[in-house]
Amino acid sequence: EEEEEEEVQHLRKGKALLTGQDKPVWEDQDDEQVSVDVSDKAMLRKLRQTTHETLVRGPEYRQRLKKQHEAIHGTPAWAAAASDRDTARDDFSSSSRSVLGHSKALPQGTLRVVKATNANLAGPSQAVVRSCRFHPSAPALFTAGLDKTLRIFQVDGKQNALLQSVFLPDLPIFTAEWLHNGNEIIMGGRRKFMYVFDLQQGGVQKISEIQGCPDKSLERFWVAPDSSVVAVCGKDGRLILLSGRSKQWMCDLKMNGSCRAVAFSPDSQRMYSSGDDGVVYVWDMGTRECVHTFTDEGCVHSTVLATSPNGRYLACGSDSGVVNVYDHSFMSESRPKPLKAFLNLTTSIDDIVFNHDSQMMCFSSRVKKAALRLAHMPSMTVFSNWPTQRTALNYVYSADFSAQSGYAAIGNDKGKVLLYRLTHYDRV
């Protein structure tokens, strides 16, 4: 941890490096004679281009520091301003980058990732981080967990300032989600009540009376993308639907087995649920009827479901560590074959999340240390270079991608939310 912080501080000092295209006012001729051992310290090893590289000459060392700094923090404002001297050249260049940046394909095999300052460094949790979620449009993230505290941070990759902290004295938070385009946060736990934090009003509302919902635990729930419905896993296979606006009971849906996982289609028109029997239920949210069921291949106990933002994939995780990914063919078959079965983890899958353009899928297990993998969805392969055995993830409890996938956040059992810059994506 000290090495990581030292590295961040070292990179911040890189602001003195040039990022414009003008010739430097002054150059140190001795740089040509200097060689730096990039294998000597942990903070320098990430500058190596091969694992066997040791000495790097001064100019090359300077360029690698510059590239590393820009990967984490982007081009400083003072450097960007200098480029305005050639307006025609810059306008053409920036517009080209904008057009290409939104459509470029994510390469498979190797993921460009750089460690940034922990997202919750300004306010670390005092217990397990059960939920960490990026705001759907703003550069912000909240954390919530068993220390009964909701914290909201402004994410810039450097300071990640703490914007708000809300203590709930009677609710260890098991689940928290955004509502209504990021204007509210709904929180639940092993209690028969819930809390809602209104970001515009700055107030907390306790939802203590939910008529028609006798369950004493509301720890597992999911929110439809349009915030119209909050689905709670109840006892004996009951799916309790609450109104996203009033937070009151709307109706119950019934599965044959127990309910363990729920996911919604991107347009909120369908809901998927699964449980201990490995059967996935497909619900029409207009009629609130089950329109199809299918058996997740090889699954005995289902643990988590997730849909991709583009609506193409449904991912099903099980307690055996397998993640099966299906396309829409499952709607016409009772025992469909998955497009891909990811067998990279061996313990129960607890979390699956897709990034905004559906090119990446993150899946993890909290049972084993560093049990997290990132999958490249176009090729259905797992990135081979990250995380490594030396990546200090600890026990992963939650993960999320920022709105434009520039950041990935990982909440663990130590109360930390690790932040990584995914440099393939220009916008965060």
List the helices and strands and how they pair.
Layout: H1 2-12, E1 35-37, H2 42-45, E2 55-57, H3 58-73, H4 77-82, H5 87-101, E3 113-115, E4 129-134, E5 140-145, E6 149-154, E7 162-167, E8 175-179, E9 184-188, E10 194-198, E11 203-207, E12 221-223, E13 229-233, E14 238-243, E15 249-254, E16 261-264, E17 270-274, E18 279-284, E19 289-295, E20 302-307, E21 314-318, E22 323-326, E23 340-342, E24 351-354, E25 360-364, E26 372-376, E27 381-382, E28 396-401, E29 407-412, E30 417-422
Antiparallel strand pairs: 1-2, 3-30, 4-5, 5-6, 6-7, 8-9, 9-10, 10-11, 12-13, 13-14, 14-15, 16-17, 17-18, 18-19, 20-21, 21-22, 22-23, 24-25, 25-26, 26-27, 28-29, 29-30
Task: Please provide a written account of the structure.
By secondary structure, the protein is mainly β. The protein is built from five helices and 30 strands. It has helices at residues 2-12, 42-45, 58-73, 77-82, 87-101, and strands spanning 35-37, 55-57, 113-115, 129-134, 140-145, 149-154, 162-167, 175-179, 184-188, 194-198, 203-207, 221-223, 229-233, 238-243, 249-254, 261-264, 270-274, 279-284, 289-295, 302-307, 314-318, 323-326, 340-342, 351-354, 360-364, 372-376, 381-382, 396-401, 407-412, 417-422. It has a four-stranded antiparallel sheet, covered by helices on one side. The model is unreliable at 10-23 and 80-101 (pLDDT under 50).
